[in-house]
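Hi there, hope your week has been kind to you so far. Do you reckon you could talk me through the fold, stretch by stretch? I've dropped the whole record in just underneath, so have a look:
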Amino acid sequence: MPPKTKFSKEAIIDAAFDIAKLEGIDSITVRKVAEKLGSSTAPIYVNFTEIEELKQAVLVRIHNIAQQMLKTQYSSDPFLNIGIASIKFAREYSVLFKDLIMNSNRYLKNIQPSRINTFEQMKESTSLSVFSEEELAEILFKMQVFQLGLSVMDVNGLLPDDFDEEKIIQMLNSVGKDVIMATRYRKGEIK
């Protein structure tokens, strides 16, 4: 009798992540993961006591991907990079984006980036270095509202046909500058 194939915890998470990318987090089941691995359900239960534990491991993977995207330098402006990372995540992982953002998913709180880290990244931008944390929070919130709306339109095919990633980033940059300028105006820096 040939030896049984052993599946590492990482291989099981990979299989579950692949399912989540295509079908959403709640589509992860022990049976589907076993089928993806070409095994019985036993290896999954050896590594995870319940399906929720496996889903949490997938959420850690999603969080790590989002964090890596946030650390990537897409442009010379650290603040713009935050928005670009969000747009790229929505485009590359559209099912996960829809699942986490558009379906009031209970898992969203588990993958949110740290506000402290986000503020630190924002402060690296010369155009934002003059603002207090309260002002940065307001700027970030306004840009998140815009960026999420833009991402929802993008992943649902609601943008004009000629609206490629470059145009999306240009619009994100333009609106970001407008929000910053309006904040500086209210602060009395611009007359």
Notes: The chain has nine helices and no strands.
